[in-house]
Amino acid sequence: MPTPRSVAEPLSPTAEQLHAWGLDPSWSRRVLVKSPNGDVVDWHVLDTGDGALGTIVCVHGNPSWGYLWRDVLTTLAPAWRVIAVDQTNMGYSERTGPRRLVDRVDELVSFCRQEATGPLVLAAHDWGGPVAVGATARLDVAALVLANTAVAKPDGVRVPPLIAVARRVTDLACRRTPAFVSGAARMTDRRHREALRAPYRTSERRSAIATFVDDIPVSASDPSFDSLASSAAALEAFCGPVLLLWGGRDPVFNDRFLRDLRARAPRADVQRFAGAGHYVPLDEPIGAIVGDWLALVTADVTAGRLERGAEDDESVLATLDEHRDDTNTLYVGPDGALTWRELAIRSETASRALVAAGLSGGDRVSVLVPPGRELLVAALAIWRAGGVPVVADASAGVGQLRRLVRAAAPRFVVGTPRTLAAAAVLGMAPGARRAGFVASKGVVDLRRAQPDPVATTTARSAGEVAAVVHTSGSTGPAKPVRYTHEALSALRPALQSLGLSPGGVFTTSFGPFMLLAPVLGMTCVRPDFEVDQPAKLGFDELRGALAMAPVSAAWLSPAAARQIVATARGRRVALDLVMLAGAPIAPALAHSVAMVTGAEVRTPYGMTECLPVTDGTDFDATGSLGGYSTGAAVPGCRVRIAALDDATREVPDGAGWGELLVSAPWMFDGYDGDWRGTRRSEQWVDGVRFHRTGDVGYLEGGRLFHLGRLAHVLNTAGGPLASVAVEGPIAAHLGRDVAAVGVGPKGAEVVCIVVHEHGALSLSDESTAERVREGSAHRVAAVLSGSLPLDHRHQSKVDRTTLQAGVAAYLAGR
Asked: What does pTM read for this prediction?
């Protein structure tokens, strides 16, 4: 039956308004759409016109309108046709009778069938999400872009506070007064607020805002509950590519809603903006991201890159299963020992507890357990349950740790009583279940066996996510590095090629490396020191570790290696192999470690995204362009040198230096929740994915020489200079640590050298400055002394970006 119509005349924005709001007035038009109930409704749309690449239909939520998609409209036209609709009763569309969710879905389908035949891209925000997703079942939809929305209220999540308040006083807050409209507008930048409020100046024009809020289903008795469930089912059934754009500071749709969407669309690409709020389409430049994503997923479909690792591969649990009855020691440390059999039994018990508490395959689990026995048990239990352990350390402070944990939106947090309490107080993981090896109220006890039948293992395919491990943040913001089961399986032979053989015993200063013990089939010994402070691992701590078990190999950070050498005082220990990693290794340090340990010393190159890359042999080899030798690429790894001005152009072996690109089967899958960062780090060459490391160096005779970070290159008038190549000769001449930074405009920077000396920056004395210039192959503009800022995790990498700013500020006006 036709709906009673409003007497209000349809209203359109003026050309002057559209100009002021950054929109082309020619895009504004009116469309008569026949609804399924027989009504002909007068819609307002912003339509950019024909686009050769296809059509994107954008659907807003409540209380916004087509202006929400301004960046998509202005960025993607005219290549794409972009249509931003104003839903019935909303924005500048006609005011008619009330609509429920099912009506809005029907009307969107009718509009698209009339105005925009497929294949379509549907983009949606807020409560436009279930409208658009619900329409996918009846339209030719090639791809979905969803921003801060929901297709269901996740279990255990309350109705968003803003919605809950509005529902209690709907008519007053949403219709009679502009409180809801104004409150929503204040969730974005001031420059957007007038445009967001403009269509809703009178109570009559705000009526649909109230009915939209009333129609939000929160329980099974609500009229639109089944319609919302249909949208959720449609998302789970959708086979095309999905992009989730998310503002991490949204008080309405928080990260738990993102977690729910990822569970329903596990292959979705995610771009999370930590600083953006509810109106992420206005807060961030999403137009370029959507355009790049659409271009790449189209190319990926053509190249067959979307379906990765669909076949089962060797599980990361395979080695543990082989040793499940083995009573030999797998781990020993200050907290005691753990045998293979104990690990198998305890991880199975903990896995059953997690599954019984609600852990599902693919769920993120934040692991806040210090390196030791319980970390091994927790990680293996999560894998058995089909979960994804998320590992981040607190070396950069609890603020960064909180940011990283919240971004992961974990379903569970596993920790100790202390870390679980801290997580609760700091609000690290709102809504996540707490679990630990302790009996405590509200905490899942991972020591308590659950009665059978409870599944203990959820099978995961090789291409699915196995773990998320964060970078240190020493060369930029800490990034969540995502590994697949396939990559972790491929890691085993790569590490074995370095000399880490099954049945052996190793010790390390890197806490996360202890998780490699069950993967490699080796015993790990944890030295008695604070793992987030590697400089506290000295000779006595190393010797204590060697006394616990017959250790043959050690994997050490430069800070730990320096401390061991400094505290040896003529004493020695016996090791077969020492690997030094985490920062460029000077030959002098490697020789000193060899003297103390009698071991073969290797300096392999690698990073969190891909480790190892090289074998670390011949650390004292010299290259024609300077830098540190890291050896040859390990079997299965490819190293490519890219020109600084063109990443697609390769610099051949012996022909110069450039950015280091690496590719290996054990390489990371991408940055979790950072689609844009993942794509920026990729370079495809003949169908092979390479990782752009952000480091620079060169190949000479098949050996890789490391020259520092791309961000630390000095851009002088005479051309680019690699920081390590500038510093090396000076440090050797002085016998002291130095750092080179460029000061001045890019392309005309001058070389400044800072000689390490405790204290604030100051000009060096004349004698030191003279010796620096004697040892330098380049003209040095200034020589300073002062403390070199080091990274938190390794306490070895010099933060030259911070140092450069300090030097520039110090020299300004002198």
From this structure: 0.90
